[in-house]
Amino acid sequence: MSAPELIVMLTLNDRTVRNAPEVFEQCKNSKAKYFGFKEEGIPLSKMIRLYNSIKACGKSTVLEVVAYTEYEGLAGAKIAAECGCDILMGTMYFDSIRDFCKSKGIKYMPYVGNVIERPSILEGSIDDMIAEAKECLKKGVDGFDLLGYRYTEDARELIERFVSEVDAPVCVAGSVDSYERLDELKDIEPWSFTIGSAFFNNCFDGTIPEQIDKVCDYVEE
Q1: Could you say which DSSP state residue 3 is in?
Q2: Is there a cis peptide before residue 119, judged by omega within 30 degrees of 0?
Q3: 62: three-class secondary structure by DSSP
Q4: Tell me: the pLDDT tens digits for 125-180?
Q5: What are the residue ranges in the chain where pLDDT is below 70?
Q6: What is the largest CA-CA distance in the chain?
Q7: Domain residue ranges in the chain
Q8: Quick one: pLDDT at residue 2?
Q9: Using CA atoms, how far apart are residues 26 and 64, in angstroms rounded to an integer?
Q10: What is the pLDDT of residue 31?
């Protein structure tokens, strides 16, 4: 398998940073192929302009919606559509969100498990999450947004089992903030992982573009 893809999130504490366009401008020539942010933090008009800038650089776009009700999730999906976003991550699974995403050509990667609070926390049994994912796959989702390192129990066991037992792209989202966790992801080989706050907190030592390239190089070693 190829190395996991880094999805750079222009976010801090599960909200889009206010200067996200300026941060992206600094990072646009970095090695990351995917950029995204959250549905909260900047106005829609700014989101649309930012996604246009990201796409103009040949990058793929992601919106992660931290929402747990059908109404909020569908509202987030509509934002993704207005922005011309490639992938909607997050929301709990609902048929209405799946149908909307399919009608707009947006890939849909919902959460699994019991997700609460913001920044998100993941609860639930691993067996239940795997069973839930398999049911969602039957309904036509494109993959999963797995809050692996936000899990209240054994994060590595969850990520290993989920990636091994669920036949779909898995993005390990949230709290990837150390080389130790990058090593685990290199071993487990999910499709992708997100980093947002860790870059703003300088967990990988350097400017944000330098940290992005360090992480991209490290996972490819």
Answers
A1: P
A2: yes
A3: strand
A4: 999 999 999 999 999 999 999 999 999 999 999 999 999 999 999 999 999 999 99
A5: 1
A6: 43
A7: 5-220
A8: 82
A9: 22
A10: 98
Contacts of 164 (CB under 8 A, 6+ apart): none
Type and span of the H or E element at 64? strand 60-65
Q: Please, where are the H alpha helices in 63-207?
A: 70-83, 95-104, 126-138, 155-165, 179-188, 197-200
Distance of CA 171 to the CA centre of its chain: 6
Instruction: State the pLDDT at residue 1.
Output: 65
Tokens linked to 50: 């930012």
The pLDDT of residue 57: 97
* Helix residue ranges, H only, 8-125: 20-27, 44-56, 70-83, 95-104
Query: Does the structural domain 5-220 have CATH classification 1.10.340.30?
Result: no
Residue 146: both structure tokens together: 């797995």
